Amino acid sequence: MENTLIRTQYGEVQGIRQDGAVIWRGIPYAEPPVGDLRFQPPRPPQPWQEPRDATQFGPVCEQPDSELEMSFPAHVRPVKSEDCLYLNIWASDSSTPNRPVMVWIHGGAFVTGAGSLPFYDGTSFAVNGDMVIVTINYRLGPLGFLDLSSYGMPDSANLGLQDQIAALNWVRSNIAAFGGDPDRITVFGESAGAMSVASLLAMPAAKGLFRAAIMQSGASQVLPPSTAHGVTEAMIRLLGGQPGDASVLMEASAQQLLQAASRLHESSEAGLLTMPFQPVLHAQTLPVEPVRAIRDGAAKGIALMLGTNQDEGRMFINRPEHMMNKEMAGQRIEAMTGQKVALLLERYPETVEGQAQMLTDLFFWRASVQYAEAQLAHAPVWMYRFDWSQLGHEFFGTATHATEIPFVFNNIAMLERSGVKLDEQTVNLAKQMQRAWITFAHTATPTTLEIPWTDYNKNDRTTMIFDRQIELAHDPDGEKRLALIGE
């Protein structure tokens, strides 16, 4: 690109050239949701007159303390704020017009995370794919996923998802100035980010904002309105308010809201819900449970790629103290998925490995297969499984939740800091995975550098296995699929 000073519809932003890419950080895509705008749908940002410095990331959204801070270099620890609706752009430093665009939605169980995490650095994507990468923040926890639609605020449900739609609208309206093609936008995300994508595909307000979608380790996941209302009432009680009076939520500081959310999560107030803050069925924003909406054609024509990791559950169940008895396990997974699974639990031994596999299969893999098959009649679908691990490593010793992210972004050099040995096969795997994501963004059809990737269908259920050796498998774990899904 010739210029790093770009004019958007709200004002100019000054970026920076770095490592073969042009980068703009901390661009506001909505007005800060503070003061009277707390718990309100996002509004367009106020225009600015002077060029805005876009060389530093904006604040991350308010969230509990976590390992997030440790992911950043010591000199750039993130600032947390309710004023957090910012996005970041990486573009290849080329003159190619109308480049494809990928918009990343971060994970973190809808309570943590940020688009500025180092693993999400889009430089490699932009340079290797001659494309434009966007990462976004969206409101989290009680600030983004409390349902206040029955408290005199009918539009105040799924605010975090509404933020994502506002960001996508901003991208569609402005990305051409950064070299991107507004008609070739792919939205992709992991974990809660993938669950967000699953919801966006079903939301009327998101229709037409992207042409392709990628869901990594997450699928249809929503609360029924009655449960979401119970979560809101519990928050009100924990903050000392009276039933039905949401004013205490407006009066509380962000820290008080987070403390109440923490107590809610730890107490019986939340029942057996492990994710009290997540998308909710709501007539105006998300009227139909996502997988049902997809089955009915809500995402007709949108190419879909999705998959899971072989050992997702090992992140959450890896020690004996994490184990549950079968009754509690059944209740928790039914609360998380909204589906009866008690009879399926007999397949899994009451061991750490057995319960981790149970979570992998019933929460992650089963939901992804169901979502894939719901979309088959309406658009092409591709399925993958990530199997790579490094034997003996404390975290990467299994293909657990989130381990595919540095491979997708081809930022695996960061893995060396945690003791991962980057052998030739590992480096090649990152190139192959990123190439598949890049070609999907360019053509709505993924392919690796080595072997063609045929689409997923009910005849052979072709699945790409990403490991040290990449291969296509036909209906992997077919017997398990029949037992868990019944078709």
From TrEMBL:
<protein>
    <recommendedName>
        <fullName>Carboxylic ester hydrolase</fullName>
        <ecNumber>3.1.1.-</ecNumber>
    </recommendedName>
</protein>
<dbReference type="InterPro" id="IPR000997">
    <property type="entry name" value="Cholinesterase"/>
</dbReference>
<dbReference type="InterPro" id="IPR002018">
    <property type="entry name" value="CarbesteraseB"/>
</dbReference>
<dbReference type="InterPro" id="IPR050309">
    <property type="entry name" value="Type-B_Carboxylest/Lipase"/>
</dbReference>
<dbReference type="Pfam" id="PF00135">
    <property type="entry name" value="COesterase"/>
</dbReference>
<feature type="domain" description="Carboxylesterase type B">
    <location>
        <begin position="4"/>
        <end position="471"/>
    </location>
</feature>
<keyword id="KW-0378">Hydrolase</keyword>
<dbReference type="InterPro" id="IPR029058">
    <property type="entry name" value="AB_hydrolase_fold"/>
</dbReference>
<dbReference type="InterPro" id="IPR019826">
    <property type="entry name" value="Carboxylesterase_B_AS"/>
</dbReference>
<comment type="similarity">
    <text>Belongs to the type-B carboxylesterase/lipase family.</text>
</comment>
